[in-house]
């Protein structure tokens, strides 16, 4: 991180939303063999509100990826 802050880095692996939502950053597209995918895990408590279950059900729909895609995320 220090080389990025001091300006001594040419590139940095970061989250996809940073170059989309921050001024002065450019995204460099990588070839498929160099792309790093990160996953997310979600656990629903047995005592969770019904709204939490409904939200998790929504996350696996076809419409759900459209929201994070506005920030550069993809499924």
TrEMBL record:
Pfam families for this protein:
SBP_bac_11 (PF13531)
Query: Can you tell which superkingdom this protein's organism belongs to?
Result: Bacteria
Q: Give the protein name, as stated in the record.
A: Extracellular solute-binding protein
List the taxonomic lineage.
Bacteria, Pseudomonadati, Pseudomonadota, Alphaproteobacteria, Rhodobacterales
Species source reads Marinovum algicola
